[in-house]
Amino acid sequence: MSIINNINKVFDHRIRLGIMSILMVNEYADFNTLKELLGATDGNLASHTKALEKAEYISVEKQFIGRKPNTRYATTKSGRAAFKSHIEALEKLINKQ
């Protein structure tokens, strides 16, 4: 069996890896927080959150705070499991001499 079998293509991009890393240690994060922490543009962040949502790795909650729209994201149970598996696969790859 190849040591790269458990590396998940969905997490290949640094922005997606960053989104998941932030959400793994926070209950949720809103769009602007993710944008600021990752240094991403609106369009770039939107496309990557859509990809993670499509894979059902994150959930999206839209609400209004006052009159301003607010979108916040959280990991799903399957997203947490997939990300943990991905990180474990990377660690095995790194530690394989």
Short description:
The protein is 54% helix and 19% strand. It has 97 residues and is α+β, with helices and mostly antiparallel strands.
Question: Can you put this structure into words, describing what you see?
Answer:
- The protein has 97 residues and is an alpha+beta fold.
- The chain has one domain: Orthogonal Bundle (Arc Repressor Mutant, subunit A).
- 54% of the residues lie in helices and 19% in strands.
- It contains 4 helices and 3 strands.
- It has a 3-stranded antiparallel β-sheet.
- A hairpin with a 2-residue loop joins strand 2 and strand 3.
- It starts with 13 loop residues before the first helix and ends with a helix.
- The mean pLDDT is 93.
Provide the fold topology.
Elements: H1 14-25, E1 29-30, H2 31-38, H3 42-54, E2 58-65, E3 68-75, H4 77-95
Antiparallel strand pairs: 1-3, 2-3
